User: What shape does this take?
Amino acid sequence: MNKRLGLVIDQERCIGCEACTVACKIENNSTSHWIQVETLNVTQKDTPSGKFPDLKMEWLPRLCNHCSNPPCVGVCPNDALVKREDGPVILIEENCDGCQACLNACPYNVIHFNEQNNIIEKCHLCVHRIDKGLDPFCVICCEGQAIYFGDFNDPNSEVSQIVKNRETFKLKPEAGTEPSIFYCPPMPRRKL
Assistant: This one.
């Protein structure tokens, strides 16, 4: 059986520091934000929602979902996006002509266009690292230790155990893309 590599992101542990975003930009020498950390349920960035003492802040790191059924791959007229057998959706840069068809096809809005280079950019799950047996750089640099990497087809892997034993969700399940990024929602806050 092939591997199905992906991530679990624990919103309970995410502190919204954006270390994953910075790590990604450094590791890939990119000008784009391949990972975007959104602040949820607030009216103003970095301002908690609710009324004291029941305040809360939640963050949602968003990146390529490395879908099992990636719509971006099918619409590319130049075969610039490829789904690897082990899961990651990667860009073959020399095939990309900058047509941006993939941007419109992605339901997660996580593919970026680099105008300077006339090419798209996206998370590739640090395949240059995982091919050497290393974790993606965002996993290593996460201050809250909120990002877990592994093989969903291995029932004993940490990511499989988290999905089996905790409440998790995928973004936009109605899109039918079968993402390889799962999220653990934050726990309900106790009343003081």
